[in-house]
Structures are given as structure tokens and as C-alpha cells.
Specification:
Elements (H helix, E strand, L loop, with lengths): L17 E7 L3 E8 L2 E9 L13 E4 L9 H10 L18 H8 L1
Parallel strand pairs: 1-4
Antiparallel strand pairs: 1-2, 2-3
Length: 109
């Protein structure tokens, strides 16, 4: 995807606010870029190890991170809506086992 320079000046003379929301994919990250709250473009950042340098011109970057452990009802609803292969499951919380607290803490790290 070709990307235009991100420097945008509004007619008011102030710089427009560039923000991006990113979510993980099998190939890396997909970023949706907004200018003053309006869609500008989508970018694919190859590789999950990306340092987001391609988004250096953004004022803010919001990263989609699951909160909690699975299975979650929200994931099941999303799968039903968009298809199973499009929704990644987050891991279930596993009980920590071990004879001592130290051993249990080591097992969870």
C-alpha cells in the first residue's frame, strides 16, 4: 500500500491530529490511520516484531490488547459475526501447581 506523507495542515493553520489504531494479524499488524477522527488509510506493518516506525508521524497509537483470560463471550460473538478464522482466541488461565509458592510463581512466569 502506498502511503502519502502524513503531514497535514488544515485551513485553520493548525496541524491535523494523526492517530492510528493497530491490531495483530498473522502477517504482522494492520493500522487504521485517522486524520482528525476521519479515515485516511489502512497500512500493513509486516512482522509481529514491528517497532511501529512506519507510524512515527502519529500523535497517538492505540494497540488492541485483550484483557483477561479466555474463553470470553465477546470472542464467541465476534466469531459468529465475522467467521471463526478471523478471531484469535486468548489463552485460558491455567491453575498454577507446585509444592511451594515459589514453584507456583516460577510455573506462571
Amino acid at each position: 500500500m502506498a502511503t502519502a506523507p502524513a503531514t497535514v495542515r488544515r485551513q485553520t493553520g493548525r496541524m491535523a491530529e494523526l492517530v492510528a489504531g493497530v491490531d495483530g494479524t498473522k502477517r504482522g499488524w494492520v493500522a487504521v490511520v485517522l486524520v482528525d477522527g476521519r479515515f485516511r488509510e489502512a497500512r500493513l506493518l509486516d512482522g509481529v516484531e514491528s517497532d511501529f516506525a512506519a507510524l512515527a508521524d502519529m500523535k497517538r497509537i492505540a494497540i488492541d490488547v485483550p484483557i483477561g483470560y479466555g474463553p470470553r463471550q465477546a470472542d464467541a460473538l465476534a466469531r459468529a459475526l465475522v467467521g471463526g478464522s478471523s478471531v484469535f482466541s486468548i489463552p485460558e488461565r491455567r491453575p498454577r501447581t507446585g509444592p511451594t509458592r515459589s514453584a507456583r510463581d516460577d510455573a506462571s512466569a
